[in-house]
Specification:
The complex is a heterotrimer of chains A (350), B (255) and C (291). With 350 residues, chain A is α/β, with parallel strands linked by helices. Chain A contains 14 helices and ten strands. Chain A folds into two domains: 144 residues, D-Maltodextrin-Binding Protein, domain 2 (3-Layer(aba) Sandwich), CATH 3.40.190; 144 residues, Periplasmic binding protein-like II (D-Maltodextrin-Binding Protein, domain 2, 3-Layer(aba) Sandwich). The longest helix of chain A has 27 residues. Chain B has two domains: 41 residues, no CATH class; 213 residues, MetI-like fold (Orthogonal Bundle). The radius of gyration of chain B is 22 Å and the shape is globular. Chain B has eleven helices and two strands; from the N terminus they run H-E-E-H-H-H-H-H-H-H-H-H-H. In chain B, a hairpin with a 6-residue loop joins strand 1 and strand 2. The chains are: A alpha/beta (350), B mainly alpha (255), C mainly alpha (291). Chains A and C meet through helix 3 and helix 14 of A and helix 12 of C.
């Protein structure tokens, strides 16, 4: 059976297609910088979306310095907890990043192991796990990220109460509070600002129900790109995401609500049974090194070691606005999340 | 006939228009205030290809592995189901169709819980995909293998003294050439775009293309996500087109 | 169109060692399909893995909680509503298409390219179809820019139905294309030569002959649409479907695997019911037509 003209042509087409894809991947790997400190391999962080703060640049700089690949991962804190538990018998991730409310839940699930990254001794005790399983790496503040091009003539909102007004109907979003740490922090922030507390969720739940009645949406993954393109004109998220969007060229304003807001620390931890422990330790050490903290600061993420440099604070909201942001007992916040979720599902619905 | 032709053209438009609009978004500098607002650019397309290319290669390799496994395991199974009139054949048929009914994400959770060790190597992903595509392979191969014409030819060859292997190569395989290609194409296509079963089984450091796309839809700009979608659709064309053309050619020859 | 082997002749030529051919397939199915589903059911009864806030131990509590949950019930109803509407619309769209394609193929034209175009979307993950909906009828979608009422429709029930129609189209056109091709052209020709009008032939001969295949394809397409997670994952903003409930139970703080498994089993039972119903009705209709 001789190979006729058509099969040969087909083989050529398939080969061309393969070459296209292989070329693409070869190009990408050729673009990777040569190994810096002679490191190799990969380190996988769960919950490191490229569009979250400047995580993209931080991981890219780490790869450039050490030669260790550090891919982004779009999971939110709840999905990270789920994935780590699901693969407990054969872990795939090395590092976990999550909102502080999930810190103790990760410890309870037994998916973290103690490790004190170099340079993290300076972090205050209330931003660290008692057994060293997790350490806060930076903090943000809950704020409105407002795309002024897509408000359809309405004024920029300045308070929590504003968002329940009809002119903002269908324009508001915040991440799912049952899964995402930032979403849960939004709920906590609203609750605290409107007179509630971690023991009394009444004001918060009522407010979220009002928002839902006004057409608010609760996406599960990082939605900052959706603000830039106008899909979600007003996103209640962390302030650093808003500043980053503004710097990227979107007509975005960051607003800290008048009634009050919340500081949200984010933590990192070493996964129990991490396949690439050495690489993971290098990454964690990098996060707490001067360079790492400085990189986070350049992404408007408040470092835990040292202060934000003046050139950054100059581009952010004035300190007076930030005084409206309080803290809560983050351990308790994590403990009451389950009962909050039940109330949220029952009274607000997703 | 004219009504039929008009309807067909309408349906073609329904299928193709979303892809064309995605192309428009992918080549706009900024889509937020309308198509081509800000001008035309290929920056998103090149960035999209850069991000997507390694995942496309992975999806291709998984797809080929899944198609091969389907033809091997599924082919043997289909032959047995086609030739056995007893109830075990019917039972196996129903078992094979089970993954159609059980939601893929549920299977995904179950797989990752029971076979966590197979996950890093990618074997679990291939296995999950084969589970999902097996019913389609059986549906394509069993009717052809059960055909009376094939049974007759096979019997004739047997009575002439041909060995089972010789009968397989010279009688059975040529008879179901078209169906085999159809099964391979279906298995490759379904595996390439499989998302549900892969959701938890997928390795985060080395995702397949549907995951890179999902991440883009959820977290990236719409222009970049559109560009990646266009590249995904384009990457389907070579293999599926080749298989379709080959099948058409073989169908012509055998008819 | 069930692949039922013929009882005549086939048994004669099957060698005794034929069952060996079934071993790899059967072993694979048992290991990777049956066993994991067993684990799923085990989890849902509390006998397997449980989440952080769930108590291990044999119990039907998870099923009771799931079946009595308002969110799950409304998601299930929305799922059934959206999927049934979508698949029915798909069938209405697909039938004229496959009949026309079969007619052209019978007339000698090459329909390979047309067939390929309509089966290509089966390789698209549900997520990309959700994305198509956003690009066309999302908040900043193209059609929404020209017709204001279409803005944001992708996140509503009609938008979801449209997305699931696109999702089901290749899965319905595929089997029906083969069925339409397999219709004996002699019967409608005979009817036409006896003076029956085109519409009459269509209504009384072609469509009834095609119905068993349509019913079976509907059942399968419904089962697949019900279990589809990708599309709703991308398009969910207020409207919730059942697969979303399964995954959210896992992602929600606590990794409630037992509850998620119970929800998964409920979804599987629903999908299975539609699948079996489609097959059974189709077999019934085939026998009636044969008579």
């Amino acid at each position: 059976m001789h190979v006729g003209r058509t099969p040969r042509a087909l083989i050529a087409v398939v080969a061309a297609g393969l070459a296209l894809t292989a070329c693409g991947s070869a190009d990408t790997s050729a673009e990777q910088p040569a190994a810096g400190a002679g490191g190799s391999g990969t380190v996988i962080t769960y919950n490191s979306p490229a569009e979250w703060g400047n995580f993209g640049e931080v991981l890219a700089t780490f790869t450039a310095e050490t030669g260790i690949q550090a891919p982004n991962d779009p999971k939110n804190s709840g999905q990270t907890l789920a994935a780590l538990q699901a693969e407990k018998d054969a872990p795939v991730a090395d590092v976990a990043y999550a909102g502080i409310a999930f810190g103790d839940q990760l410890v309870q699930a037994g998916v973290l192991q103690p490790y004190t990254p170099e340079g993290s001794e300076a972090v205050p005790a209330d931003l660290r796990a008692a057994d060293g399983s997790w350490t806060a790496v930076h903090t943000g503040t809950i704020a409105f990220i407002v795309n002024t091009d897509h408000l359809d003539g309405a004024a920029v909102p300045t308070s929590w109460a504003d968002l329940t007004e009809p002119e903002y109907a269908g324009k508001v979003g915040y991440l799912d509070p049952t899964q995402a740490a930032v979403g849960y922090s939004v709920a906590t922030a609203a609750n605290e600002a409107l007179g509630g507390s971690l023991d009394d969720w009444g004001p918060g739940i009522d407010y979220l129900a009002q928002l839902k009645a006004n057409g608010a949406v609760t996406p599960a993954q990082t939605a900052t790109a959706k603000v830039a393109q106008g899909e979600i004109p007003i996103l209640i998220d962390t302030d650093f995401n808003g500043y980053e969007l503004r710097d990227e060229g979107a007509n975005v304003q960051v607003v800290i609500p008048a009634e009050g807001s919340l500081l949200v620390p984010y933590v990192v931890g070493l996964v129990n049974g991490a396949p690439d422990r050495a690489n993971a330790e290098q990454l964690l050490d990098f996060y707490f090194s001067t360079q790492g903290q400085q990189l986070f600061a350049e992404g408007y993420m408040r470092p835990v070691i040292g202060e934000l440099p003046a050139e950054m604070t100059g581009k952010m909201l004035p300190a007076a606005d930030y005084e409206r942001a309080t803290t809560v007992d983050y351990v308790q916040q994590g403990e009451v999340q389950q009962s909050f979720i039940e109330r949220f599902k029952a009274e607000v619905g997703q | 006939m004219r009504a039929g032709a008009a309807w067909t053209r309408l349906m073609v438009a329904v299928v193709v228009v979303p892809m064309l609009v995605t192309l428009v978004v992918a080549t706009s500098v900024s889509f937020s205030t309308g198509p081509f607002s800000g001008g035309v650019t290929f920056d998103w397309m090149s960035l999209g290809l850069e991000l997507l290319a390694p995942t496309l290669l992975r999806s291709f390799l998984v797809g080929v592995g899944v198609a091969a496994a389907n033809l091997l395991i599924g082919g043997l199974l289909a032959w047995w189901v086609a030739r056995t009139a007893a109830w075990p054949a019917r039972l196996v048929g129903y078992l094979a169709n089970l993954p159609l009914a059980v939601p893929g994400i549920a299977i995904s959770v179950a797989l990752i819980g029971t076979y966590a060790q197979l996950r890093p190597s990618g074997l679990l992903l291939v296995a999950g995909h084969v589970v999902f595509t097996l019913p389609f392979t059986l549906a394509a191969l069993v009717p052809v293998l059960a055909a009376d014409g094939l049974v007759e030819c096979d019997q004739v060859a047997r009575s002439l003294g041909a060995s089972p292997l010789r009968r397989l190569v010279t009688v059975t395989l040529p008879w179901c050439r078209v169906a085999v290609l159809q099964a391979a194409a279906t298995a490759y296509a379904l595996s390439y775009g499989e998302f549900n079963i892969s959701f938890f089984v997928n390795a985060p450091a080395a995702p397949t293309a549907p995951f890179a796309l999902f991440e883009a839809y959820a977290t990236r700009r719409i222009e970049l996500a559109s560009a990646m979608s266009i590249w995904f659709i384009v990457s389907l064309l070579p293999v599926l087109g080749a298989l379709a053309a080959l099948r058409g050619r073989l169908a012509e020859r055998s008819s | 169109m069930t692949p039922r082997p013929r009882a005549t002749g086939a048994a004669v030529s099957t060698p005794r060692w034929a069952w060996l051919a079934a071993v790899p397939g059967a072993a694979f199915l048992l290991a990777f399909a049956v066993y994991p589903i067993g684990v799923l059911v085990q989890n849902s009864l509390g006998l397997g893995r449980t989440g952080l806030h769930e108590q291990p131990g044999s119990t039907s509590a998870y099923y009771r909680a799931v079946l009595s949950s308002e969110t799950v019930r409304s998601s299930a109803l929305t799922s059934i509503g959206v999927c049934v509407t979508a698949v029915l619309i798909t069938v209405v769209l697909a039938v004229p298409l496959v009949l026309h394609a079969a007619a052209r193929s019978a007339a000698g034209h090459d329909t390979a390219r047309l067939d390929a175009l309509f089966t290509l979307p089966v390789a698209l993950p549900g997520t990309i179809i959700g994305f198509f909906a956003i690009v066309l009828i999302g908040n900043t979608g193209l059609l929404g820019l020209w017709f204001a009422p279409l803005r944001g429709v992708s996140y509503t029930v009609p938008g979801l139905v449209a997305a699931y129609v696109y999702f089901s189209l290749p899965r319905v056109v595929g089997p029906l294309r083969g069925a339409a091709e397999a219709l004996d052209p002699a019967v409608p020709e005979a009817a036409r030569s006896l003076g029956a009008g085109r519409v009459r032939v269509l209504a009384t001969i072609t469509l009834p002959l095609l119905t068993p295949a349509v019913v079976a394809a509907t059942g399968t397409a419904l089962a697949i649409a019900l279990g589809g997670y990708g599309t709703i994952a991308v398009l969910s903003q207020g409207v919730r479907l059942l697969p979303l409930e399964v995954v959210d139970q896992l992602s929600a703080a606590g990794f409630n695997v037992a509850t998620a498994s119970a929800t998964g089993v409920v979804l599987a039972v629903l999908a299975c019911a539609f699948l079996l119903l489609g097959r059974a009705l189709s077999a019934l209709l085939t026998r009636r037509i044969a008579r």
